[in-house]
Amino acid sequence: MISNIGPCSVMKEVLEAYPGAQRALFRRYHIGGCSSCAFQMTETLAQLCQRNNNLNVSEVLDHIQASHELDARILISPAELSELRARDKSAKLVDVRSREEFEAVQIEGSLLLSQTTMQEILSRWPRDQFLVIVDHQGKHGLDAAAYFLGHGFTNVRCIRGGIDAWSQEVDANLPRYRLEISPKT
């Protein structure tokens, strides 16, 4: 366990230490996935556990840590993926970014995850298909990987650092970009 995270840690600190903590909490305890089970970033882990049927804080922390370790095993470095693709062309890259991002820059051979692509994957692809999730910077891909794993896919990975890391480590000709969020008016 990361030593500075404990019962008095606020959820913002927990999520910074364990980026997949919200996914882990939702998966096991149905906490944090929707408005009815949401938590505040300023709420402590102990407060969250208390208001959710007095969950044992140590057990919740252990679950978050174990989930964090599982997330780490799902990640594949850009260099590892590049080497694997050179040897085995059967890996499918599924890009979960927006259509605009995908059209601007993409890894050769990747598929944009659309409704149609999703239906095809779920209904036709073998559950042992090697599937690699591509996102922008590795922050959202694990959610998509968890979705496919939850639907029975057994060989799902996610590029560590996303397409941004791929462009730094594998293909320097692939342009990097930053998303700009416009202020609401």
Can you put this structure into words, describing what you see?
The protein has about 180 residues and is of the alpha/beta class. It has two domains: about 10-75, no CATH class; about 75-170, Rhodanese-like domain (Oxidized Rhodanese, domain 1). The chain is about 45% helix and about 10% strand. The protein has a five-stranded parallel sheet with strand order 1-5-4-2-3. Helix 2 crosses helix 4. The mean pLDDT is about 90.
Task: Name the helix and strand elements from N-terminus to C-terminus, one letter apiece.
Answer: HHHHEHEHEHEHEH
The neighbouring-strand order within the major sheet is 1-5-4-2-3
For the record, the count of structural domains works out to 2
How helix-rich are the residues, as a percent range?
Answer: 40-55%
CATH topology of the largest domain: Oxidized Rhodanese, domain 1
> What is the percentage of strand-forming residues?
5-15%
Low-confidence stretches: none
Q: Which shape, going by the Cα principal axes?
A: globular
What's the β-strand tally? Answer: 5
Biggest beta sheet summary: 5 strands, parallel
Any idea what the CATH superfamily of the largest domain is called?
Answer: Rhodanese-like domain
Helix tally equals 9
